[in-house]
Amino acid sequence: MKTNALLQNLQAAVRRLQTVVETELKPLSSEVLNAKARPESWSVLECLEHLNRYSRYYNPAFAQALQPARQPVSEAAEVRYSWLGRKSLDIVRPGNGKASKTVKHMNPAGSRLSRGVLDEFLQHQQELLTLLANAQAADLNQKAVPVEFFKLLKLRTGEALEFVVLHEERHMQQAQRAAQHAQVTAPVLMV
Q1: Are 79 and 140 a contacting pair, CB within 8 Å?
Q2: Radius of gyration of the chain (CA)
Q3: How far, in Å, CA of 182 to CA of 174, rounded?
Q4: Is 38 in a helix, a strand, or coil?
Q5: For the whole prediction, is pTM greater than 0.85?
Q6: 8 A C-beta contact, residue 47 and residue 172
């Protein structure tokens, strides 16, 4: 895929994520946002806190990787993928129904979370949009982004950006399912 097309697709996806939070999740009660379908599943806020933890790592890593390019990069350049990048993208792709274990420090299960998680998520998405705009002038094929759980491994900037957005889409779908379940199973108050 061409650099410009990839970045436009990622920006559109981030804007959709922002819209879901603003229109579907923010209006929900704290009870619904914290409800779980099962004790081992994540609530809406836990899904978004998981993404916030990733953003706290990856947004600064992207800012570092996207420092002004030494030489101009063509928007028509093809984004290339390493074996690690392709495998990582396949794992987090929203259509992949396989459950994945998360590393312990990225697992928010059992955390005490408030509605502030939603605001933090939206702030991270705004930062990500700025980073994606800055990526227009960067070499997305440069191996510059250390993998969060094993920093000796590096992803190419383009595949790392795509990984983060796909990961966010996957967990947003999970959050929407949690919200839907909580609203269906919420007790109805009869007056």
Answers
A1: yes
A2: 18
A3: 12
A4: coil
A5: yes
A6: yes
